[in-house]
Every structure is written in structure tokens, then in C-alpha cells.
Amino acid sequence: MSTLSTPDPLPFPSGPVRRHRGRGVAVVGSDIDTDRIIPARFLKCVTFEGLAAGAFADDRAERGADHPDGPHPLDRPGHQGASVLIVNRNFGCGSSREHAPQALMRWGIRAVIGESFAEIFFGNCLALGLPCLTASPEVVTAIQEAVAADPGTILELDLEALEVTLDSEAAGENRWSVHLDPGPRSRLVSGQWDGTAQLLSHEEQLRATADRLPYLRGFPARTAAPAEA
Amino acid sequence: MSAGTLYDKVWDLHRVADLPGGSTQLFIGLHLIHEVTSPQAFSALQDLGLTVRHPERTVATVDHIVPTTTQARPLADPLAEEMLATLEGNCAAHGITLHGLGSGRQGIVHVIAPELGLTQPGMTVACGDSHTSTHGAFGAIAFGIGTSQVRDVLASQSLAMSKLNVRRIRVEGTLQRGVYAKDLILHIIRTLGVKGGVGHAYEFAGPAIAALSMEERMTLCNMAIEGGARVGYCNPDETTFAYLRGRPEAPDGDAWERAVAWWRSLASGPEARFDDEVGFDAASIPPTVTWGITPGQGIGIDEPVPTLEQLAPEERALAEEAYRYMDLRPGQPITGLPVDVCFIGSCTNGRLSDLRAAAAVARGRRVATGLKAFVVPGSEQVAAEAEAEGLDAVFRAAGFEWRQPGCSMCLAMNPDRLEGRQISASSSNRNFKGRQGSATGRTLLMSPAMVAAAAVSGQVADVRPLLAVPAALH
Ligand code: SF4
């Protein structure tokens, strides 16, 4: 297996996530599942530390030095230190393992742009403060091609304007709009993506909800049927 | 927007608060945990100085990493032992019930919660495992979550969620003999696609669903997630109540009647509105197997591997990748493809009825020479029931290995794995590249009866002729 996994240069997300600026790395292909993002053998751990080495481990191993397409993008020298991952359709399908975004985050990824994302993966990324932005296939392909052609290309993501700006020596500057649903967007931009405290702040409502659930109250005779539906 | 469906009723009942940004704080009625996705959540809880809010609503077991040949402690793999010990420590520290090895109640988390009667209609069920959709078979709203969410549920017994659309999948008619819930869901996923359900809860309804046993409904809902639907469910009915009655954690005494009345009231009524609806005819569904690298790449047993021209343009790149990886030619028949390993087990198909269906095929026959075949019961209880019926003896006599319960080669986090390019006939739920422990290993998903048919034939084979004439009568 490759030993090129980079030590993480950026701090993990904290507080509001409004913009991100960094170099990109493209992993092309649709339906890339979490078993490929991090093979199951790397799940044998009780902490997330050290997961960077597992990111795309089997795909990277398969693309050894003699592979006709060259090494896996994550192992190309020009992409070391990249922080924006650009992917295609249904990225992150399969298992619910948070190890997948954890591995990507620990490799250095701070934002993902793709055509579409699997739901649990999207939610797991959100819980870590990693935005998953969607864009049209044309825009995604254009960014992937620009980044592959010139790994020094700088991407600037603006979650408030919902725009990505690409600045490369070869292709010049380009700007496209990207999509992020209002809910996740406002949670990222306001810094409320790490929601434990918020959930705990609704003490009254939590208690009231527990109190009206028939199965927590021994199915009382005059149970309030869920008529409010 | 859906209204009046079981999903809507359960959602509204569990709604704690509206959160900024449009999501909802949802109360979680039952939280299931296991050794793989919980340790980091407990560490995070500790870092935040928090405790478990409802330890009595959290239940733990160990399944993913357990060996199936010998389960003596300490486990041979030190990492596996560390994960199990960590789970034991966390459960003890927080007062959480753990159904551990040898307790008589251990098994795959999605097998034990229903069999203990923990999973009930009208609950919200969450677990750090995507196949949590299984519990929807009871008319619960059940979904997989990530580790940060496991932390949130431990801390607050609730989650930030966005409401899904509800699609009703109506299945008319009757399944043919030799065609099971596994074939039905593989057929549905093949038709609607692996992303077809994204953003949706699937309500399975119609006469064919009403005719399914609870175990078959669990198989169906288990794989809703493979069709992109995070939630899949069936409305509770007499079959549901009959299954639950007398289970250790099910209500009893006078509470039973009141519970049933409430459960009945939850079902989607005639006035329910769905976001959309799709129909299937059960009678037209053949035994179905996957040929590719996603659960959506399935075909009827009599069909050839599809050619590029037969596929929609956006499916072709993945098909080409699958031909290469699986080493299959477009247009070649799937019947007759030699297999190396046969695996019967997993939370999809590791229950008693699955083992019975496979044993009916194995009885009086022999596993083909050179082929490795093994059966991993889904839980200690399934193992005990199967042994009481003599199914273990049927399998052993046919040349299958009879193992101890766990996830096993569904995801190969334990020593059970494919080697090199081996190809498996598997009753599990995922055929992703590398899923069964070898980065180049290949998986064909099918029903347990079809796996048994492959085992005795040495190749992919239609189970129907084998059922028509029991081998013992030859
Ligand atoms: S049997 Fe497979 S799918 Fe089910 S919980 Fe275990 S690993 Fe996950």
C-alpha cells in the first residue's frame, strides 16, 4: 500500500464554515461506496486516529506505480495537501460508517463537491463540519479536469453565495454556482453543525415527548393516539 | 407531501422540536449499539462531559468482529478483543444492557432486537449501522446513523433529522415457489435503481407484502437502504402481532391488548397520501441474482448478463467496470457460472426461515467438491432453534460448515473472508468491490435457497427444479 498519506496540515473544522480555499483532488466514478472509501478492515479500531492511511486504501493499492493510469489521485505528489475532493454521482453509498468521512478528513479533505451524495454519508460529513456541495455534471467534470490537469489549481468555495471559483494558471478564472440545501447550509454557516448542545437545550420538549410515547408509559389505557398527525 | 401514513404518524409523535435550518429534532425510542460504531461515540461523550440520557432505551450486542469458529475469550485477534472489551467497559460504565457472547441472546443486532421483542410498531429505532431499516418490518421508523449521531442519541435520546418523502411500493399477486423476499427486493432495487430511494421512505404494501412472514418482511426492509431508501417499512398487522406475542421484551398482560390497539391505529389508512407510488407484480419475479458490483446490478436467473446496449446510458460506465471486475462477458448466461465459496447468513438472511429454506435444498444432497460452504446463524437463538430442528445436522451431512453467530463474511471483519479472486454465492446484502474481505474478491447476491442450490451444483443454478423433486425421493 502507498505510504504517501499526508500528515494532516489543517485543523479540523470548528465554528462557522462559510468559505474554504484550497487545492483539489478528483476521484472520478459514480456510486463509489464507503467500502471503497475505507475498507472494512480499517474499522477495527476504537478511535478514529490513524484512519488517513485507510482512505481509498484498496483503490490506491490497485493503482500501483506500474498501473497504466498511474497512481491513484490521492497518491500523486501534486495532490498532497489538497483539501477539496471532487467526485461524481451517489458518492458515499453503502455502509453508514462515519469512518469514511473521518478518513477523508484526516487525509486533509475539508469540503467535497459532487454530482450527488448518499444521504447517510452527507449527514456524517455535516456532523464533522465538512460541506458536501452538489453541482451539475458539466461543472463537476470541468473542475475535475482542471484539477487533474493542474494540481496547483486553487478552488474557493463560498457557502453563503453558493459559488465555487476556480483559479488555474492554464484555464484562468471560472465561477460556477453550487447547491446545498438551506438546512445544512445554515447549520454550517452558523456554526451549528455540531448539534449536541442544541439537542440538549430542549430539555422540556425532550421530557414532554418521552411522556407522550405510549411504549414508554406501559401503554396506558387512555393513551393519546397520535392524532395530531 | 405525504400525510396520514404510518411514517407521518410516527414522525409527528416523536417530534421534539423544530431546529434552525428546517430539520427536526426527533426522539429515538430504541437505540441499538454494537462494537464497531460506538467506541468513538462514547469517547466523544466523555470528552464533552456528558452521560447517557436513557441507558434503559439503549441495547448493545457484539456481532461484526466476532469469530464464528471459536468464540472463547480472549478473542484470537487482539484488535477484535479490544473492541469487545471496550464495548463491555462502556456498557458497564453507563448501565447499558449488553447481550454478549454466550448469553443466549447475542447475535447480529438486526436479528436479536426483533427476536427479543425490543423492536415494536410505532417506535423510532436508530443504530450505527445502515441496515437498521430492517426494523421497519414491524411498522417502526428505523434508520442507520453515523458515529456522531450515535453520540447525539446517547447524550439526548434524539437526533436532528430531515423528513423524508414517502413512496408506496405496492406488490400485487403471489411470489412463485422458489422465489423469496430476497428476490423481491433485489428485483425492486434492480428496477428502481440503487439511488431510486434517496430522500424517500419506502412503504411496502399490497397483497404480496401482507402474505409475507415477519422474517421475510425483515429481509425486504433490510435492503431498502441498498435501494437508496434510508427507511423501509411495512404496516403492522396480525402477522406482526402474532410474531411479537410472548417475546421477552414485548408488552404482556393487559398492556398487550392496549398495545395492539395502538399499533393497529398507526397503519397508513385509506386516506393516507403518498408522495408517489410504484407497483410490482410478485408472480412475474424470478429468482434474482446480482452479476455486478452494486446490488442494483441484478438479473433473473434465466437472463444473460446485460449488454451495454440494454442499459441506460448513465449505467454503462459502471457496467463496464463491473464486467472487468467480475470477469464476466456481456450477454453470457449467469446460470452455470462456477463459484468458490457459499455463504448463508447475515442480517438479511440469517434467520430460522432462511436456514430452513436452504436446508430444504441441501437435504440429501452434497456440496460440490472443492467448494467451501458455510452457514452462520444470525443469533444464538436462531442457532439453538435450528439445532433443535436438526438443521445443523442436515447442513453438516451435506458438507456445509455450521458456525457460531455473527456478521461473518457479510463484511469480513472477522477471519471469514474471500481469498484473491474467489467468487462467492452469498445471502448477504452487498456485492461492492472488496466487500467480502479480499480486495479482488467477487460476490453474487441471492436468496439462501439459491446459495444452497449453488453449493450443491458448484455453480449458479436455478433453485426451482431442486425444490420440485426432493433429492431424497430420487
Ligand atoms: S450482517 Fe452485514 S449488513 Fe448486517 S449488520 Fe452485520 S455487517 Fe452489517
Written account of the structure:
The complex is a heterodimer of chains A (229) and B (474). Chain A has a seven-stranded mixed sheet. Chain A contains eight helices and seven strands. Chain A starts with 18 loop residues before the first strand and ends in a 17-residue tail after the last helix. Chain A has 229 residues and is of the alpha/beta class. In chain B, a hairpin with a 7-residue loop joins strand 13 and strand 14. The radius of gyration of chain B is 21 Å and the shape is globular. Chain B has 474 residues and is α/β, with parallel strands linked by helices. Chain B has a five-stranded parallel sheet. Chain B has a five-stranded parallel sheet with strand order 17-16-15-18-19, with helices on one face. In chain B, strands 11-10-9-12 form a four-stranded parallel sheet. In chain B, 33% of the residues lie in helices and 17% in strands. Chain B is built from 17 helices and 19 strands. Chain B folds into two domains: 6-276, Aconitase, domain 3; 290-473, Aconitase, domain 3 (2-Layer Sandwich), CATH 3.30.499.10.
Question: What brief labels describe this structure?
Answer:
heterodimer; A: 229 residues; alpha/beta; Aconitase, domain 4; 2 domains; disordered N terminus; B: 474 residues; Aconitase, domain 3; five-stranded parallel β-sheet; binds iron/sulfur cluster
Sum up the overall morphology of chain A in one term: globular
CATH T-level topology of the largest domain in chain A: Aconitase, domain 4
CATH level-4 homologous superfamily of the largest domain in chain B: Aconitase, domain 3
**Poorly predicted ranges of chain B (pLDDT <50, ≥5 residues)?**
none
Overall tally of structural domains of chain A: 2
Beta-strand percentage range of chain A? 15-25%
If interface size is counted as residues with C-beta under 8 Å from the partner's C-beta, which chains form the largest one?
A-B, 71 and 87 residues
Mean pLDDT of chain A: 89
Q: What is the count of β-strands of chain A?
A: 7
- What bound compounds does this protein have? iron/sulfur cluster
Strand order of the largest sheet of chain B: 5-4-3-6-7
The share of residues in helices of chain A is 25-40%
- How many beta-strand elements of chain B? 19
- Radius of gyration over C-alpha positions of chain A, nearest whole angstrom: 20 Å
Multimeric status of the protein: heterodimer
Helix content of chain B: 25-40%
Structural class, judged by helices and strands of chain A?
Answer: alpha/beta
Report the structural category of chain B: alpha/beta
The CATH homologous superfamily of the largest domain in chain A: Aconitase, domain 4
Mean pLDDT of chain B: 96
